[in-house]
Amino acid sequence: MDLVLIESLAVDTVIGVYDWERNITQRLVLDLELATDIRPAAADDDIAQTLDYAAISERIQTFAAAHDFALVETFAERLAATLHEEFGIAWLRLVVRKPGAVAAAAAVGVSIERGVRPGVS
Ligand SMILES: Nc1nc2c(c(=O)[nH]1)N=C([C@H](O)[C@@H](O)CO)CN2
């Protein structure tokens, strides 16, 4: 299985369960592994035959700006569904980190895998 990678993508969004978090934006940092077969794109040297990490990164930015979830769990789940629907991604791993949320930790967050890994039944 091949992967397109997006690492340490910083997005700003309204996120949090506490009252003081509802009127500010905070930074989330995302890592994504996106399953695809890169061979057709490589054979033809054609961006149209692969997952465009620039376009996906831009979509994630607009997603973050448009939503105001309480939980990072909800952010992750809804973003995974959006990327699956709009880009036809068969399988992905998404890590959402919220730096600074816990002072003693470098970051806290969630990691999810969604979809069916190509070649695995
Ligand atoms: N599992 C989670 N725990 C907590 C979350 C969360 O989104 N998922 N959020 C908070 C607060 O918003 C916190 O990040 C504020 O610093 C607490 N626990």
CATH superfamily heading: GTP cyclohydrolase I, C-terminal domain/NADPH-dependent 7-cyano-7-deazaguanine reductase, N-terminal domain
How many domains would you count in the coordinates? Answer: 1
Each distinct ligand: ligand LV4SOB2L
Strand arrangement, major sheet = 1-2-3-4
**In whole angstroms, how far apart are the ends?**
13 Å
Strand fraction band? 25-35%
Count of runs of 4 or more consecutive helical residues: 3
What is the helix content?
A: 25-40%
Architecture (CATH level 2) name: 2-Layer Sandwich
Secondary-structure content class? alpha+beta
CATH class: Alpha Beta
Radius of gyration: 15 Å
Count the strands?
4
User: Biggest β-sheet, characterized?
Assistant: 4 strands, antiparallel
CATH topology name, in short, is GTP Cyclohydrolase I, domain 2
Shape estimate? elongated
Mean pLDDT: 96
Order of helices and strands: EEHHHEE
Protein name: 7,8-dihydroneopterin aldolase
EC number: 4.1.2.25
Family: Belongs to the DHNA family.
GO molecular function, one term: dihydroneopterin aldolase activity
